[in-house]
């Protein structure tokens, strides 16, 4: 997915842009991965 590519490349992106395309990506993948990694959201 586009999100996985950005995370692997270390690319910074706007959360608002992702919310428009798919809120489920944020709730199912992005936020949990940040919490597990101890990183800021």
UniProtKB/TrEMBL annotation:
Name the domain of life.
Answer: Eukaryota
Where is the chain membrane-spanning? none
Q: What is this protein called?
A: Topoisomerase 6 subunit A/Spo11 TOPRIM domain-containing protein
Q: Which residues form the Topoisomerase 6 subunit A/Spo11 TOPRIM domain?
A: 2-35
Which Gene Ontology molecular-function terms are recorded?
DNA binding
Recorded hits in InterPro entries, A to Z, give:
Spo11/TopoVI_A_sf, TOPRIM_Topo6A/Spo11
Q: Which residues form a coiled coil?
A: none
Which Gene Ontology cellular component terms are annotated?
chromosome
List the taxonomic lineage: Eukaryota, Viridiplantae, Streptophyta, Embryophyta, Tracheophyta
Record-linked Gene3D superfamilies: 3.40.1360.10
């Amino acid at each position: 997915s586009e999100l996985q590519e950005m995370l692997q490349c270390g690319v910074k992106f706007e959360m608002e842009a992702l919310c428009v395309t798919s809120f489920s990506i944020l709730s199912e993948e992005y936020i949990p991965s940040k919490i597990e990694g101890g990183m800021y959201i």
